[in-house]
Design goal:
mainly alpha; two-stranded antiparallel sheet
Length: about 325
């Protein structure tokens, strides 16, 4: 079975890339003709103002490839966990589409924070309920460094459910916030997905691990195909359609592999970016308008400090690689059993 995984999962990476690259050739001209250009807000870096009019909704490119290939996989090898993660990803993408549509057609600020929060929490609460009480599987979390396995049962499921509600909401918003520089969210997420994919491959001892690995490599490949159009200078933005979907997928994959804590290490840039916003806003409110960073999220801080978008992406990808190595090392004792 491991030999099959070693062949099939890398094949998923290539298929994801090919289908996504082809999808971009079809979808990008449609977006360019349909007046879906995003109006860049003046509160961001001044260098971004020239990007106004760049088509958004680019998440459709990699989501269409990912969905098609996942459905084909499910036809030949049905996996309820894979189906649940796919639906979870797509519903988040739909919420992102709602936000993008409002930005383009009505108000460049998008839907209100309250509307987005309610929609996200509702979807995530439903998913958590199905995961905890509707799946025929033992709920576990594997501690790092071989410290053992936490089996979650009884009233513990309710407490774990509350933790997961915070976990999903924080993760999806963190990935969403990271999408502020050409190719940044895509590149970082490719590295994170390669980590979850390789982790699943090395721990290939269950249908769930197989499914998580397939989804990881399919989306990593699809994002590589999308980068052909999203690399600086971007021809298209993924929009919230893409970033919320990616946040949902990545957080769900870590959960499926029973290592949600690893998101903090492998996805360190996501965490740093969203923390920089929280710190900036809190400090601003308590000091009467003073700032710690030139601008938040922190990737804009470095841009205003003179970094090119290419340098921001390169450095942040290297940090993500380092975080993923740390996550792998902390997880290795479990894999080596």
């Amino acid at each position: 079975m491991l030999l099959q995984a070693e062949i099939f999962m890398p094949l998923a990476l290539l298929l994801g890339f090919g289908v996504s690259a082809l999808a971009g050739r079809v979808i990008l001209p449609m977006l360019q003709r349909s007046r879906t250009g995003q109006q860049v807000r003046e509160v961001g870096p001044s260098t971004h103002l020239k990007k106004s009019g760049t088509p958004t909704f680019g998440g459709f490119i990699f989501l269409s490839a990912f969905t098609l290939l996942t459905v084909i996989y499910l036809v030949f090898r049905f996996n309820s966990t894979v189906l649940l993660i796919l639906l979870f990803t797509l519903v988040h993408g739909a919420i992102g589409y709602w936000d993008d549509f409002v930005k383009v057609r009505k108000d460049k600020k998008g839907i209100s924070a309250k509307q987005k929060t309610i929609a996200l929490l509702l979807v995530e609460a439903i998913f958590i309920a199905i995961y905890l009480f509707g799946m025929n599987e033992e709920i576990r979390m594997v501690w790092p460094f071989g410290w053992g396995v936490l089996v979650i049962a009884g009233w513990g499921k309710l407490l774990y459910g509350l933790f997961l509600l915070f976990y999903f909401y924080a993760c999806t918003n963190a990935v969403n916030i990271t999408d502020g520089v050409d190719g940044l969210a895509s590149s970082i997420t490719i590295v994170v997905l390669l980590f979850t994919g390789i982790t699943a491959l090395l721990g290939y001892n269950s249908v769930v691990a197989e499914g998580a690995g397939i989804l990881s490599f399919l989306m990593a490949g699809a994002l590589l195909g999308f980068l052909l159009y999203n690399w600086h200078k971007a021809k298209v933005f993924m929009g919230d359609t893409g970033s919320l979907a990616l946040g949902a997928l990545v957080s769900a994959l870590f959960l499926a592999e029973q290592i949600p804590w690893a998101f903090v290490l492998s996805g360190a840039i996501y965490v740093i970016d969203i923390l920089s916003v929280f710190i900036q806003v809190t400090y601003f409110r308590h000091t009467g308008g003073k700032r710690i960073f030139r601008m938040s999220p922190i990737h804009h801080h470095f841009e205003l400090g003179g970094w090119s978008e290419y340098k921001v992406v390169t450095v942040f990808v290297l940090v993500t690689l380092a975080g993923s190595v740390c996550a792998a090392l902390s997880h290795w004792p479990w894999l080596a059993r």
